[in-house]
Amino acid sequence: MRDITIVRLNTDSDHVATVASWTYAEWGHLNPAYTAETWREAFRQECGDGGVPSVFVAMQGDRPVGTAALMAEDMASRRDLTPWLASVFVLPEWRGQGIAARLIRRVEEEAAACGIDQFYLYTHDQQGLYRRLGWCDHEILNYRGEEVTIMLRRLEA
Comparing C-alpha atoms, which of 104, 82, 63, 62 is closest to residue 150? Predict the structure, then answer.
């Protein structure tokens, strides 16, 4: 897989602005109160030292090519559900190589290491990927103008 490594992104990383710009471009429309700058600062706060929150980046050498996060909250209308797998994104030219699956597994490992036995995600178009990785449909709803599926992953004890 062209020497891809998965690393934790910390708040002072040179890659924070780049990775935040990907997630803003992909999902910023769901949060119209954010500007690119306020999004970047909120993203930086998600780069914890371990547990919730944590952001992971797939690196090819010194170049980030994908990301995924473990967050306490990802859906304002479902604050009763926590924590969340969020912001799974791989650059288009790197898709189809298993990078997203590796990022998701890394977030699952982080959750399990913290004693989390189940967590959630939502997606409007990647249900098949998550089902293949052991996630189950939990609920379908309209969230900020998009029909999305909330999915649940139970982790082995």
Answer: 82
Rounded to 5 degrees, φ, ψ at 111 are -60, -45
User: In angstroms, rounded to a whole number, what is the distance separating the alpha carbons of residues 50 and 35?
Assistant: 27
Interacting residues of 31 by C-beta distance below 8 A, sequence separation 6+: 39
What does the pLDDT look like over 81-129, one tens digit per residue?
A: 999 999 999 999 999 999 999 999 999 999 999 999 999 999 999 999 9
pTM of the complete model beyond 0.85: yes
What is the Cα 61 distance to its own chain's centre? 21
